[in-house]
Design a protein that fits this description.
Helices cover about 65% and strands about 10% of the residues. By secondary structure, it is mainly alpha-helical. The chain has a domain of about 210 residues: MetI-like (MetI-like fold), CATH 1.10.3720.10. The protein has a two-stranded antiparallel sheet. A two-stranded antiparallel ribbon has the order 2-5. Strands 3-4 form a two-stranded antiparallel sheet. β3 and β4 form a beta hairpin. The two termini are about 45 Å apart.
Length: about 325
């Protein structure tokens, strides 16, 4: 066998080995999702069987029926506060507080809506504020810029549990405790999002910003028309990270939310468990339901996520 044949054989071996390795790793990552989805349709006997049941003998909807029937909650509730006018030392209250309540639905539906709203709101607000902060830290010169960026980097290494008590007191002082906003606002100033988008903004030529300033464009116009479109891959990556981080932040949700109507899907399912037994079918049904929005968001932002990670790796 000559050297050319040896090189071809070696290339084929590496190619097949790479395909096998990638397929094996993909299987390891996809198997838990497969097990949850199939487990959501298994009977209790199949779930608790000593020998694994890889495919349900019959696709049973009993787990989803129990998930939807155990508790109920209003689909939505909107509170309209009374109008208050301060006149000197006196506080005049006009009218009364109104609460608009929607129809009663299974609590799991309300929990899923709460979780989607919490994650989407956190994603949008965080991406906007992080993009603006990253633009300022990358392209503006002002006193204390290095100190502020150093604090952002240090905050990335700070565990959330350390600042949980101050956050709880702050949300209570703002009368936001036990509301969805108590989980949204602490995520808005996410240091990693600011750091990520600052690195992307630094890759934009400063001459483009100066050209906008010479043409008379305002700071907001420069940011929206020039900077934001060019850092869109970084914003897409930040959006996925923020959405997943907000969705999976069980500890923050556990501390901030108590009322049944304000719970998230993961927290609500946890409260449905008994003290002496665990309904694994109910857990898998709730996990399968909760995984749908995560998959949809990733499929939507997959292009920006992949491009953002690649650009970050190239920049080093």
């Amino acid at each position: 066998m000559n050297r050319l044949d040896q090189n071809n054989a070696r290339e084929k071996f590496y190619k097949y080995f790479s395909v096998f390795a990638v397929a094996f790793v993909a299987f390891l990552f996809a198997f838990p999702l497969y097990w949850i989805i199939t487990g959501a349709f298994k009977t209790g006997k199949e779930i608790n069987s000593t020998t694994p049941v890889w495919i349900p003998s019959e696709w049973d909807l009993g787990n989803f029926q129990r998930l939807m029937s155990k508790r109920s909650a209003p689909l939505f509730d909107i509170t309209i506060p009374a109008l208050q006018i301060k006149f000197g030392k006196y506080l005049i209250r006009l009218g009364k507080t109104m609460v608009i309540t929607g129809p009663t639905v299974p609590a799991a539906i309300r929990w899923l809506i709460n979780t989607v709203f919490m994650s989407v709101a956190s994603m949008l607000i965080t991406c906007l504020t992080a993009a603006m902060a990253g633009y300022v830290l990358a392209k503006k010169r002002f006193f204390g810029k290095a100190i502020i960026f150093s604090l952002v980097v240090c905050a990335m290494a700070l565990p959330k549990q350390v600042i949980l008590i101050p956050l709880l007191r702050e949300m209570s002082a703002l009368n936001l405790y036990d509301t969805i906003w108590a989980v949204i606002f602490p995520i808005v100033g996410w240091p990693f999002g600011v750091f990520l988008l600052k690195q992307f903004a630094e890759g934009i030529p400063t001459e483009m910003v100066e050209a906008c300033r010479i043409d008379g464009a305002s700071e907001w116009r420069t940011f929206t028309d020039v900077m934001f479109p060019m850092i869109k891959p970084g914003v897409g990556a930040c959006a996925i990270f923020t959405f997943i981080n907000s969705w999976n932040d069980y500890f923050m949700q556990l501390i901030m939310l108590t009322a049944n109507k304000n719970l998230t899907i993961s927290l609500g399912i946890a409260t449905m468990q008994g003290e002496s037994s665990t309904d694994y079918g109910l857990l898998m049904a709730g996990a399968a339901l909760a995984s749908v929005p995560i998959i949809i968001v990733f499929l939507i932002f997959q292009k920006y996520f992949t491009k953002g990670i690649t650009m970050g790796a190239v920049k080093g």
